[in-house]
Amino acid sequence: AMSNPASFRTLPISERLLSLVDEMGYQEMTPIQAASIPPLLEGKDLVGQSQTGSGKTAAFLIPILQKIDVSQNQPQALILCPTRELCDQVLR
Q1: 28 phi and psi, to 5 degrees?
Q2: Cα(48)–Cα(36) distance, rounded to whole angstroms?
Q3: Number of C-alpha atoms within 13 angstroms, CB side, residue 8?
Q4: In this predicted model, what pLDDT tens digit does every residue of 19-71 receive, in sequence order?
Q5: How far does the chain reach from its first CA to its final CA, in angstroms?
Q6: d(Cα 26, Cα 47) in Å, to the nearest integer?
C-alpha cells in the first residue's frame, strides 16, 4: 500500500492521454493503478485483483490507450469481459 497517492503526471504517458484522464475527473492514482500501470506500460504481464470501484478498468485501459498507434488502422488490443456489466463499464 502506498502512503502518498501518486499523480498520473508521474507516468510516462502522452499529454493527450493525461488530458483525457483529467477530463474524466481522475486526480491521483488509486493503489491498484499505481501498482499496475507502470509495469503494464513496460509491456509486462499482470494479474490484478482488488475490490469493485478501486480503478482496475482504468488501470488496464490507460496502458492500452498509450500503446495504441492511431496511424495503424487495425486491431491492436483485445479486451475480454466475462460479464455484460463489465463490458458496459469498459465501453464507457
Answers
A1: -125, 150
A2: 7
A3: 25
A4: 999 999 998 999 999 999 999 999 999 999 999 889 998 999 999 999 999 99
A5: 28
A6: 22
Q: Does residue 1 have a pLDDT over 50? A: no
Residues present in the chain in total: 92
Q: Residue 66: name the closest of 75, 56, 76 by CA.
A: 76
Q: With a threshold of 0.85, does the pTM exceed it?
A: no
Q: Quick one: pLDDT at residue 66? A: 96
Reference 34, options 66, 56, 6; nearest CA is: 6
Q: What are phi and psi of 9, to 5 degrees?
A: -65, -15
Cell 488501470 belongs to 59
